[in-house]
């Protein structure tokens, strides 16, 4: 039996498809001072879905060390000394959405052989092992949403 998407996962996919959030790369969310606009990774959209639905998730903004015109947002626990908290999902988001890990790990091993072959074909030779990797190598939000809807077991441990 195939796994369906749960309400949180459906809300995330709908947000990816909405066109309301410009896509960015490398960070969950950043504000470009040059463009005067926010840019999101597909996983940053998941954090925004939680905040929009009043799920308590610490967040804040910092100036990027290497990029003078970008302020980045962190979600979750900011206590770490490095910037990883701005690159990966906080545990709260991983748990609510039931992602396989903080980078949205792709677990093709959870699929049957036919679906695993279909997923490999859909990835078109892209060897990225996570949603973050797909986002950062040019996959659009629409393409990511299509993939997640077609192969939910590869991205979520259960419907949520």
Describe this structure in words.
The chain has 160 residues and is of the alpha+beta class. The chain has one domain (8-154). It has helices at residues 7-17, 42-52, 91-97, 113-122, 131-136, 141-150, and strands at residues 29-32, 37-40, 59-63, 70-75. A 4-stranded antiparallel sheet has the order 2-1-4-3. The longest helix is centred in the N-terminal third of the chain and has 11 residues, at 7-17.
Structural topology:
Layout: H1 7-17, E1 29-32, E2 37-40, H2 42-52, E3 59-63, E4 70-75, H3 91-97, H4 113-122, H5 131-136, H6 141-150
Antiparallel strand pairs: 1-2, 1-4, 3-4
Write a short abstract of this structure.
The chain is α+β, with helices and mostly antiparallel strands and 160 residues long. The chain has helices at 7-17, 42-52, 91-97, 113-122, 131-136, 141-150; strands spanning 29-32, 37-40, 59-63, 70-75.
Q: Structural class, from helix and strand content?
A: alpha+beta
Number of domains: 1
Q: Give the helix tally.
A: 6
**Count of beta strands:** 4
Main pleated-sheet profile: 4 strands, antiparallel
Radius of gyration: 15 Å
Helix fraction bin: 25-40%
Regions with little confidence, pLDDT below 50 for 5+ residues: none
Order of helices and strands: HEEHEEHHHH
Strand percent estimate: 5-15%
């Amino acid at each position: 039996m195939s796994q369906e998407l749960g309400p949180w996962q459906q809300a995330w996919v709908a947000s990816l498809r909405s066109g309301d959030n410009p896509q960015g790369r490398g960070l969950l969310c950043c504000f470009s001072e040059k463009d005067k606009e926010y840019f999101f990774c597909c996983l940053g959209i998941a954090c925004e879905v939680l905040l929009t639905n009043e799920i308590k998730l610490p967040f804040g903004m910092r100036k990027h060390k290497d990029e003078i015109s970008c302020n980045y947002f962190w979600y979750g626990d900011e206590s770490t000394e490095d910037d990883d908290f701005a690159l990966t999902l906080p545990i709260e988001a991983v748990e609510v959405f039931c992602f396989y890990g903080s980078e949205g790990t792709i677990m093709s091993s959870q699929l049957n052989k036919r679906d695993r072959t279909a997923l490999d074909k859909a990835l078109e030779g892209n060897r990225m092992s996570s949603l973050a990797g797909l986002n950062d190598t040019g996959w659009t939000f629409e393409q990511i949403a299509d993939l997640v809807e077609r192969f939910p077991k590869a991205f979520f441990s259960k419907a949520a």
